[in-house]
Amino acid sequence: MQQSIFNSFNENILPHHGEIRLYDHFFDSGKANFFFEKLQNTIHWKQEPIWIFGKKVMQPRLTALYGDPEKTYSYSGITMNPIPWTAELLEIKSSVEQVVEKPFTHVLLNFYRDGQDSMGWHRDNESTLGPNPVIASVSFGVSRNFQIRNYFDKSEKIQIPLNHGSLLIMQGESQHHWEHQIPKSKKVAGGRINLTFRKLI
Ligand SMILES: O=C(O)CCC(=O)C(=O)O
Ligand SMILES: [Fe+2]
User: Fold this and answer.
1) Is the CB of 59 under 6 A from ligand 1?
2) What long-range pairs does 117-122 form, CB within 8 A, spacing at least 24?
3) Does residue 137's CB lie within 6 angstroms of at least one atom of ligand 1?
4) Each residue's pLDDT tens digit in the chain (201 positions)?
5) Which pTM value belongs to this model?
6) For residues 94 and 67, is the Cβ–Cβ distance under 8 A?
7) Residue to mutate, 110, 112, 113, 146, ligand 1, most ligand atoms under 8 Å from C-beta
8) ipTM > 0.85?
């Protein structure tokens, strides 16, 4: 049986204002290996530009958006059209939904090819995600550090490794009060695929 999201084994990582919970071995290593290979080879990965302070820059990673066809997703000045769900993505989505007990409409995928690929500080607080979004983040491949800091007091910082097959759930006020990033690392060798399931309203 799947664990409930409110199970005490998966304690809230945040000290206040929102919830972030980690399920470290959500997928066993056999399943996680299968999904990493499959996604690496079949997802339509692209390197897309974004706008930062009025400047167009290439994102330091590959991305893709899959999901229900009728809605597009916009962030950092770009609009992405979803590609229809694949069998593997639907399988991962359904496992995650059994824990979260809420449906998702889209998944944003990130492929960090090596330690030089990264994602900068941000909050997932676009109005199309609703006021207190639930975001479920699945990781396959090499472990990368996930850093979280208080948006209003940047000295309050938390770091956790996101391992092969892990599931991280962010909800409540977390996207108002806290920002997150995947920093570059000289120590990392190998690729990592991350999927963030979202509900667009
Ligand atoms: O790669 C990760 O774990 C973070 C992804 C993320 O924050 C996002 O897609 O918004
Ligand atoms: Fe994010």
Assistant:
1) no
2) 117/60, 117/61, 117/62, 117/184, 118/60, 118/61, 118/181, 118/182, 118/183, 118/184, 119/60, 119/61, 119/181, 119/182, 120/181, 121/149, 121/179, 121/180, 121/181, 122/76, 122/179, 122/180, 122/181
3) yes
4) 344 444 457 899 999 999 999 999 999 999 999 999 999 999 999 999 888 888 999 999 999 999 999 888 888 888 888 999 999 999 999 999 999 999 999 999 999 999 999 999 999 999 999 999 999 999 999 999 999 999 999 999 999 999 999 999 999 999 999 999 999 999 999 999 999 999 998
5) 0.94
6) no
7) 110
8) yes
CATH H-level superfamily of 19-198: Alpha-ketoglutarate-dependent dioxygenase AlkB-like (2.60.120.590)
What single string gives the DSSP state of each residue in 104-172?
--EEEEEEE-STT--EEEE----GGG-SS--EEEEEEES-EEEEEEESS-TT-EEEEEE-TTEEEEEET
Our answer on whether the CB atom of 182 is closer than 6 Å to any ligand 1 atom is: yes
Residues 6+ apart with CB under 8 A from 78: 48, 49, 50, 51
